Amino acid sequence: MSTIMEQMPIVFQALNVGFVQTLKLFFVTLLGAFPLGLIIAFGSMSGFRPLRYLTRIFVWIIRGTPLMIQLLIIYYFPGLVLGKTIWGGGEEGRFLAAAVSFIVNYACYFSEIYRGGIQSVPKGQQEAGLVLGMTKSQIFFKVTLLQMIKRIVPPISNEIITLVKDTSLARIIALQEIIWAGQAFLKGSQGISGQIWPLFFTAVYYLVFSGILTLLLGWLERKLDYFK
Amino acid sequence: MAILEVHNIEKSFGSTKVLKNIDFSLEQGQALAIIGSSGSGKTTLLRCLNFLERPDKGKIVVQGETLFDAEDPTTMREKDVRMKRLHFGMVFQSFNLFPQYTALENVMLANQLLEKEKPGFKENKKEIYAQIEEHAKELLDKMGLSDRADHYPHQLSGGQQQRVAIARALALHPDILCFDEPTSALDPELTGEVLKVIRSLADQNTTMVIVTHEMAFARDVADQVIFMDEGIILEQGDARQVIEHPTQERTKQFLSRFAEN
C-alpha cells in the first residue's frame, strides 16, 4: 500500500481530467440555456394562446420533475424503447445526452427569470420611448434591455451557482466528471482503493470554482449599481 | 387656422365608453387645461393624441394635416404613426425617465437615434452629436438644471426629474406639448418648481395641453379650459370664465371643493 503522498499525483491527475468534463458541461449548458431560455420566455408570453399554454405546460413538467429522471430518460429512452441509440457510444454520447438534458432543464428555469425581468420593467418606460419616436427595437435595446439585465443578475447568479453543483448529477449516466473520478478511488482504480480523501478534494474544486463565480457575479451586480 | 383640431373622438375599453364625442380645437401658442375628476377620461384623451391609444371614432388634425382618421386605415400605419407622434410631446405623471442614463443623456437620446437614421449621419457624426448636446444643455439650463446634467434620475428629486422630462420632450421640438398630471406625484413644495417651469413655457407661447388638478394654476396659466365628466366635455371656454363662473351644475359641484380652499 502506497502512502498518501505517493497517491496524490495519480489522484489529482484523475480529478483534473474529471473537472475538465465538469467545466465543459457547465459552460455548454450556459451557452445553450441562455438563448433557449429567451425563446421559451417569449413563448410563455406569446399572445397566441396554444403556444403560450404548451410552453407553460412544458416548463411546468421540466421544473416539476427531478433533473436526474430527465437525464436517465433522455439517455436511455431512445436506445431502449425506440431501438435507436441517437447519442452515440462511450463518453462522447453520454456527454451529448447530459448536455441536452441540462440545457433544456436550465433554459426552463432561465425562461421564468427572463419573463419576470421583462415584465418588471415598468410599462411607462416603453411609452416614454414611443412618444419620443423610438422604434420597438430601439426601445428594447436602448431602454429596457439593461434594466432587465440588472433585475435578472441576482436570480441568474443563483441558478449559475446551483448549476456548478448540479453537473455532478450527470454521474448517474456514468459521465466521467469529477465526482465519478473521485469515487473511483473508493472502489479501486490505478492501484488505489478504499480511499475517501479524494472525494474531499472534489469538494474543494467545487468550492473554489463557485467562489470565483460568486466574486465575478458580485462584481457584475455592483457594475450595474450605478442606476436604480 | 387652429394648430390642433380634434373631431368627435370616441374610445371604449371593452364595454366601457371612456370618451364620447370629444370635439375641440386649439390655437397656436395657447395653453389648454383639461380638468375633471379621476376617471373622467382626461388621461385617455391625452394618450389618444400621442397615439398610445387608438380612438374608435373621430379625427385628429394638426396644422391642417389629418394625422388620424378612424375611417381611414392608411392613417394608422405603424411606421407613419412613429413620426406622427413627434408632433406631440408628452410629459408623464410618473416622469418615466430612463434610469440608466444621466439627465443630459435622457434629453439627448431620442435626437441621437433620429439623426442616426438620416442620410449623411456618418460623415458628420461629430458635429451632429455636438449640436444635440449643446441644445440639450441649453434646455437643461432653461429648466434650471445645468448643475444636474450628469446626475442619474435616482439622484434627483421628483421635481428635478419632472423638469428633466420636460426638457426631454422639448428636445424634439413638438408642435404641441402635452402634460399628464405633471405634478400629481410631487409634494407641494416640488409642485411649485414644476408649475413655474410650465408657466414660463406658457409665457413663451408654447402650445400646450395640460391635464391637471391644480385649479388655480389652470385658471392663471391656461387660455382655455375643458371640464370633462364621464367621458364627455361638459363645459369649455375661457379659463377664468369656466373656473370662476361655471354654468353647469356638475362643474360647480366639482369646483366647489377648490373654491373652499
Oligomer: heterodimer
CATH class of chain A: Mainly Alpha
CATH fold field value of chain B: Rossmann fold
Main sheet makeup of chain B:
6 strands, mixed
| Helix content estimate of chain A | over 70%
CATH topology of chain A: MetI-like fold
Fourth-tier CATH superfamily name of chain B: P-loop containing nucleotide triphosphate hydrolases
According to CATH, the homologous superfamily of chain A is MetI-like
Secondary-structure-derived class of chain B:
alpha/beta
What's the rounded overall pLDDT mean of chain B? Answer: 94
Layout of strands and helices, then pairs:
The complex is a heterodimer of chains A (228) and B (261).
Chain A: H1 4-44, H2 49-64, H3 67-80, H4 90-120, H5 123-131, H6 136-166, H7 178-187, H8 197-223
Chain B: E1 4-13, E2 16-26, E3 31-35, H1 42-49, E4 57-62, E5 65-69, H2 78-84, E6 88-91, H3 103-116, H4 125-142, H5 158-170, E7 176-180, H6 188-203, E8 208-211, H7 215-221, E9 224-229, E10 232-238, H8 239-244, H9 249-260
Helix pairs in contact in B: 3-4, 3-5, 4-5, 5-6
Characterization of this structure:
The complex is a heterodimer of chains A (228) and B (261). With 228 residues, chain A is mainly alpha-helical. Chain A has one domain: MetI-like fold, CATH 1.10.3720. Chain A is 79% helix and 0% strand. The longest helix of chain A is centred in the first third of the chain and has 41 residues, at 4-44. The mean pLDDT of chain A is 93. Chain B is of the alpha/beta class. Chain B has a single domain (4-260), classed as P-loop containing nucleotide triphosphate hydrolases (Rossmann fold), CATH 3.40.50.300. Chain B has a six-stranded mixed β-sheet with strand order 6-7-8-3-9-10, sandwiched between helices. A four-stranded antiparallel β-sheet of chain B has the order 2-1-4-5, with helices on one face. In chain B, helix 4 (125-142) crosses helix 5 (158-170).
